[in-house]
Amino acid sequence: MAYVEExxxxxxxxxxxxxxxxxxxxxxxxEEAKRRLEIYGPNELEEKKKSVIRMFIExxxxxxxxxxxxxxxxxxxxxxxxWIDSAAIxxxxxxxxxxxxxxxYSAEKTIEALKQLAPEYVTVLRDGEEKVxxxxxxxxxxIIILKExxxxxxxxxxxxxxxxxxxxxxxxxxxxxxxxxxxxxxPEDIPVSDRRNMVFMGTHVIRGKGKAVVVATGxxxxxGKIAKMIAEAPEEKTPLERELDYFGxxxxxxxxxxxxxxxxxxxxxxxxxxxxxxxxAVALAVAAIPEGLPAIATAVLAIGAKxxxxxxxxxxxxxxxxxxxxxxxxxxxxxxxITKGEMxxxxxxxxxxxxxxxxxxxxxxxxxxxxxxxxSNALNNLLEYAAAxxxxxxxxxxxNDEWKIKGSTTEGAALVLAYKGLSEKGVxxxxxKYPLVGIIPFDRFRKRKTTIHRLSDSxxxxxxxxAPELLLEICDKIVSSNGVxxxxxxxxxxxxxxxxxxxGNGYRTFAxxxxxxxxxxxxxxxxxxxxxxxxxxFLAVLGxxxxxxxxxxxxxxxxKRAGIKVIMVTGDHKLTAMAVGKxxxxxxxxxxxxxxxELDQMSDEELEEVIDKITIFARVTPEHKARIxxxxxxxxxxxxxxxxxxxxxxxxxxxxxxxxxxxRGTDVAKEAAQLILLDDxxxxxxxxxxxxxxIFENLKKPINYLLTCNFGEVAAVFGGELLGLxxxxxxxxxxWINVVTDSLPAVALGxxxxxxxxxxxxxxxxxxxxVTPRKxxxxxxxxxxxxxxxxYMFISVFKPNDISSLIFAQTLAxxxxxxxxxxxxxxxxxxxxxxxxxxxxxxxxxxxxxxxxLQLLILYIPYFQEPFGVIPIPLYYYPLxxxxxxxxxxxxxxxxxLKINI
Length: 902
Description:
- The chain has about 900 residues and is of the alpha+beta class.
- It is about 50% helix and about 15% strand.
- It folds into four domains: about 10-45 and about 115-230, Calcium-transporting ATPase, cytoplasmic transduction domain A (Distorted Sandwich); about 295-310 and about 690-755 and about 765-900, Calcium-transporting ATPase, transmembrane domain (Up-down Bundle); about 315-340 and about 550-680, Rossmann fold (3-Layer(aba) Sandwich); about 345-545, Calcium-transporting ATPase, cytoplasmic domain N.
- Strands 10, 11, 12, 15, 16, 17, 18, 19, 20 and 21 form a ten-stranded mixed beta sheet that branches.
């Protein structure tokens, strides 16, 4: 058999499908199945893994790291005796590379998680007999047998069904089970979510059974196509990563330029040896490059990630912490994210009374509150009938502190309503009051289910539930506040209008009707159900919806104030999405809602033009979600995409930050995302955004601190060269400052308490730089002040041609700049707020104390003095050193007082 090309299988009669696939309803022979397995390969999703060696090597491609490595190599070659400097540089680079490698290695599991979607075993027809085989051995043309609880092993065209309902939420986002049948569906280009005669890999059978012919396996399935999209999606860098890359390139070029100029001046103006000039250039490079910045940024992000974990937001990729704080669009899946993914009765509509129902999901807590009129007797009957009618097929259970429905979620919603109105005891009493004697199961053609209950030896209660329009057709009476009255044409029209209003507001409608009869022929239950389902009394219509989680509306309001737009992206129907959108406070109108079929007719450019005014995308496919994220990013937005299903994975990977649900989320979504919500609560996203903003502000503080210090070091070295002085620092001094004494205060600055109004500010713009021209000017001026103080101390004790005075001058300059940078650390607690208005940061005082202690250790412990080339400083120098160290703090506080912002 040749390789079968893809067809629009849903638009072809199943008999023709069997012909195309050269199979029959009896299935393939074992011999043919083996032959096809060789052609199509195993029913598995392919993995595309990056080489571990390649991942590790890529960690050394950063421009600043390359400069550091070259500097280390040059220092080792031209002066092998100073190997400590080179070894320190290489060690720092190696640590950064290991951290980066481990993060990337941990993230490369998305496709592997997709493989877990396929079940291990499947029931097929081979040689006309049912057999259980490994799912990986399934091939196109196999006939699979489906039953309740099964996970679908491949994409297949249905041949026959019996009350078959499939949960496709992980693939399409559809919040309710999909009713399946084998009828041909047109047109050919109908979305996956509407292909009711198809079943897809990774979805689940909720109810009923069926038989289907496999049309696609492995990477040719809908899930396989998603896997391919994920594999091909470029690995997006966060704003922080992009900013650090940009800074690295710009700083690297400047560093090389300055080093080259100094080396030129040293050789051709000062007539120093080439080796000395090279060593000085290396020292400048070491001084200019903030070696500790990547490690400090990682530490600040890790601390922030730990705080976020306490708020139920688990960070997988550290740089994503900051990205969340700078996002201005949250593109959120509806089912299970904004909503709980649990069908809930929110309206009870009688002929002349309407009740609102509180409570969320399957938890049996809530109130039934009259909104229009009241009919307590009818309500009580409804609750008792719902309990008795559903109790055989549906169970409400609590597993792992979570309420769940076993059975039909629609009937489950009615059962939960009964619990809310009657309590657990009342539900039990209702089932005992109306003992079940017969069931007419739900039928997709009748669209109803009927139960028969004994009232006494001579009377029976018949309860029917299902599609309200069809129930009305078999009713001749209706319940009203005046009792049971005839169901006239006018009353029927009124009820149909109310049903349409519910549907128009996004509610799924589910009705109850009943009758009390003297006698019943139980044979009619199985043979002539129409004899039982007639002359009923219409009771009420339930308005069912997957409601928003508690606190979502308030969280969206907070997001709006923070300048963040929330977009709902769902596979659900337009009306349902609009109803939920209104509940949570989104701006909902026909102009702000876009359906998948409309999106299909748009080019990428047309989508980009309208996307800023859209708040809801309904009936979307995985490809649509990825297009939406791309369009938003092209418009300059920083996008956070939330989701829990397989269908969300490509968009999660494409987004600036992907956010997966920890409880309901599939493994695929979790592996594709950078952030996982442990409580699946949209409110947690807004809390995480707040944390992200705090972290971003706290990242700026150590960056401002370190860059100012490094500018001071460069200016001091450069200034000493221009003044014709010998090197005022040794390279190991600069490494010590950048990696040790500066690092602890820098990390402590990342622990600053939040500045007020953090969620009242607009998001950071996508292309806004950490380092702006204004800040560069600020760093330069501050660095010059640091350099002036340092050079002053060096010159005050240096005597030409005196080696001992040179060592002491270097020691004094080294200690002066360390202490001055402590003053700079205090000034860096806020860019523009005076220090006296800030909350106390105990961690900064601890960090300064430890850094000072480390500096004193190398000055006064003989074991350290020789490697660092220092000698003890007499105590009488310290009053002057302390005064000079406060100069930089005083100058910066004067700037803040004059409101000269940076």
